Amino acid sequence: MGALWIAHVTVTDAEAYGKYAELAGPAIAAHGGRFIARGGRYVQLEGNDRARNVVAVFPSLEAAEACYRSDAYQAALDHARGASERDLVIVETTE
């Protein structure tokens, strides 16, 4: 089964967050992930509104978690810390 990496983000420092995005993309791709939604239009129906929503699909929950824990992604994440407020969850798909 595959997995979805779902992030809801409020960017507080666009320059630093841009560096995160620049480094995170290759780290995600290296673990078989690909973006299917990245900051596009959205409708907030419930819960906390965050202006940036990102969804990536991975071949498995394990691959998505390995990506998050990888040195490459953690190096990218260093730029997002203090530059954003984030919620991130990995959800296994049923297909």
From TrEMBL:
Residues 3-93 form the DUF1330 domain. The lineage of its organism: Bacteria, Pseudomonadati, Pseudomonadota, Alphaproteobacteria, Rhodobacterales. It comes from Kangsaoukella pontilimi. SUPFAM superfamilies: Dimeric alpha+beta barrel. This is DUF1330 domain-containing protein. It comes from the Bacteria. InterPro entries: Dimeric_a/b-barrel, DUF1330.
